[in-house]
Design a protein that fits this description.
single chain, mainly alpha, Serine Threonine Protein Phosphatase 5, Tetratricopeptide repeat, 0% strand
Length: 306
Amino acid sequence: MIARHHRNWITVAASIAGLALAAMLPSLPAALAQGAASPQAAGDAPISAQEALDKGAEAYARQDYAESARLFRIAADQGNASAEFNLGLLYDRARGVPQDFAEAMRWYRMSADQGDVHAENNIGALYANGHGVAQDWTEAMRWYRKAADQGDAEAEENVGAIYAHGHNVPQDYAEAMRWFNKAADQGFAEAQYNLGVMYDDGLGVAKDPAEAMRWYRKAADQGEARAENNIGLLYSNGTGVAQDKTEAAKWFRKAAEHGDANAQHSLGLAYSRGEGVPADLAQARFWMQKAAAGGIGQAKLWLLVH
């Protein structure tokens, strides 16, 4: 549950992808849709901030990141908070401009000064990740709370993650649950996944596989790969549901195709053992190679002997 750029706190004992600290940055398309960086070219007719914002979003949609940066800068220079945020995000993600966390922070601050909750959340992310500033969980929490207290689901997730991990605060699973529930009630997939992990592992609540499955399903319906993998594990182990290797393999495949390395390993094992799928050493090797590339040590060991 835990990081927006950087996630995956893995509960090794259960082989379940752990509380994924919320990916700390909103997805670029979602952010840009709300609104949208080099200055206006000499001789161009002046355009309004809103027009520059809209055209910048169109440029981004067609992957012309340099043009989107130019246009967002025109709008940002007119004080448009959405453009300031978007320009910060481009510097944060190196889209159309060189990656520059200090410049990202500068634009986020301008946007946050106008009350933009996404900018507040992302300032928290820079402090949490130590990007362009010294890592500072206290300052990260302060900015996340600013956004979370205004109902931003992503920030609510990040506040919950800090409590779950005890970063400069006493570890408090009950408080983490409270914040995850706030974000999950807004449909935020990572919070739904994290609630599943909490119920699966009995963190702050009694273990409840059925409730874990319910939250995993909600997250999986939005394409959350770790939730898909964990559904597969519940079916594979017969935890809270009748054991069903075929159903397990189906969910492992969904997660594996979405890039989850743990699921790729599990699917490789299923093919090597003929569990839920026909035994197929070539398919097993294919998925094990992907899992190994994703850093799964057990997959690397398997490849050494097969």
